[in-house]
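Task card 7
Instruction: Convert sequence to structure tokens.
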Amino acid sequence: MSADGVSARIVCVLLCEDDEQLGDRVADGLRTAGFTVDLTRTLTDAAQQCGAVLITARDSPADRSEGYAGGVDDFPAKPFSLSELAGRVRALCAPRRSPASPPLTVGDLVVDRLRRRVRRAGVLLTMTTREFSALELLAARAGTLVSAAEIAVVCGDAAVDQVIAKLDRKLGPPRILHASAAGYLLHA
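Output:
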């Protein structure tokens, strides 16, 4: 993350402005703020695939509603400051939290990925971070073999056999099948 709050990735702004002089001034201001800017006079279909900030003198509630319905993400009215516009573009480009993942259910086992909790037959089980990470992967791919190498990546541990053994004891009757060198499989 850079000092201005935008990740180190390059952010390209497609600027659509029908007033040539204003477009040039805004493009220069955004470039000064660290953005790569492509300036166009018409909005293309490709531009509608990305975030959109519409700057306009038309700022009535009806105009804004129409803009939002058309896919506009932000709607600053003219006149505007370049520093405010750069801040709005940064906010639009900032990483968003993904929607909460629904719990994974495998038989009577529920893995709540949001709260990082595991319940078996309604009983809350205590898990270490490594155990939870391994179980989350196994539950997401229940019924299919998951290699020890894949589990080692998510739980950050080379001693996968030990993590799985502890996890299997906590889950109760054998729920995790160890298929020798092939990997592990979570049963429903």
